[in-house]
Amino acid sequence: MAYMTDRKRAEGMGSAKSGTEHHWHMMVSSVALAILVPLFIFTFGRILGAPYEEVVAYFGRPFPAIVAALTVVVSFLHFKNGVQVLIEDYVHGTMRKVLIIAMICLSYAAAGTGLFAIARLAF
Amino acid sequence: MADVNRGNRPLSPHLSIYRPQWTSVTSILTRITGNALLLASILIVWWFLAASYGPEYFETANAVLTSWFGDLVLFGSLWAVWYHLLAGLRHLYWDSGHGFELDVAEKLAYGVVGGSLVLTILTALVL
């Protein structure tokens, strides 16, 4: 017992058996977003409202494009797991499954769409 | 059977019973801001998609994002994202096993609300 880590003792507990992984994912993605989101606010915020040619040139540069791509992907993965807890708290039965599946699909679709659009803009 | 009285049993006290406190309100706001950010996120992804199509579609999306409606959503989301970020840092601090004393928890709540307002105004001034 003395040699077991806290994580090892928590893994596989609870009714879903996957709460530890869920929590760890939220922690990792929140640390990543704590860095990415301020960078995105100031890069995206600077160019929003500019004409088309300037926007294309701006996201042709590596830094704004990489920040935008990472922010969109990590945000939607973070949202996917966050909204799951929201749904689990307030919705029950079949509707709970329907909503969770819909939100997972929406999250991956938005992340994929954003990634494609930024890549197409950048290249 | 165990399920005979389902639905008619007394419930343990929940949100409506308790007086709102800084700690509880800031916790609820964390959830509301995090999920409400979906709207701005979808708008921003749509803006990128439109920009990747070309100038015409870009004009449409750009007009929506820079309209009064877009301004309202994006400015509200600017506060929401700063708030959610600070509240998330507070969660990471709690996860490290610190900050559970009542006075510390209350101070963290003031910090999250005050900090998010200050950061929102500063960002609006800089951008």
Automatic annotation (TrEMBL), chain A:
Keyword ATP-binding: no
Keywords, ordered alphabetically: Electron transport, Heme, Iron, Membrane, Metal-binding, Transmembrane, Transmembrane helix, Transport, Tricarboxylic acid cycle
Pathway: Carbohydrate metabolism; tricarboxylic acid cycle
Location, primary (coarse class): membrane
Topology class, membrane: Multi-pass membrane protein
Alphabetical list of InterPro entries matching this protein: SQR/QFR_C/D, Succ_DH_anchor, SuccDH_FuR_B_TM-su
UniProt protein name: Succinate dehydrogenase hydrophobic membrane anchor subunit
Subcellular location: Membrane
Subunit structure: Part of an enzyme complex containing four subunits: a flavoprotein, an iron-sulfur protein, plus two membrane-anchoring proteins, SdhC and SdhD.
Entry-linked CDD domains: SQR_TypeC_SdhD_like
Spans through the membrane: 27-49, 55-77, 98-119
Source organism (scientific name): Litoreibacter roseus
Listed Pfam families: Sdh_cyt
Keyword Iron-sulfur: no
One GO-annotated biological process of the protein: tricarboxylic acid cycle
From TrEMBL, chain B:
UniProt entry tagged with the keyword Transmembrane: yes
TM ranges: 28-48, 68-87, 108-126
Record-level Gene Ontology MF annotations: electron transfer activity; metal ion binding
One annotated GO biological process: tricarboxylic acid cycle
Entry's localization field: Membrane
GO cellular component, one term: membrane
Cofactor(s), by name: heme
Keywords: Heme, Iron, Membrane, Metal-binding, Transmembrane, Transmembrane helix
Similarity annotation: Belongs to the cytochrome b560 family.
PROSITE patterns: SDH_CYT_2 (PS01001)
Subunit structure: Part of an enzyme complex containing four subunits: a flavoprotein, an iron-sulfur protein, plus two membrane-anchoring proteins, SdhC and SdhD. The complex can form homotrimers.
UniProt KW Transmembrane helix keyword: yes
Species this protein is from: Litoreibacter roseus
Descriptive protein name: Succinate dehydrogenase cytochrome b556 subunit
Role of this protein: Membrane-anchoring subunit of succinate dehydrogenase (SDH).
Residues that bind heme: 84
Membrane topology: Multi-pass membrane protein
SUPFAM superfamilies membership: Fumarate reductase respiratory complex transmembrane subunits
Cofactor-binding details, from the entry: The heme is bound between the two transmembrane subunits.
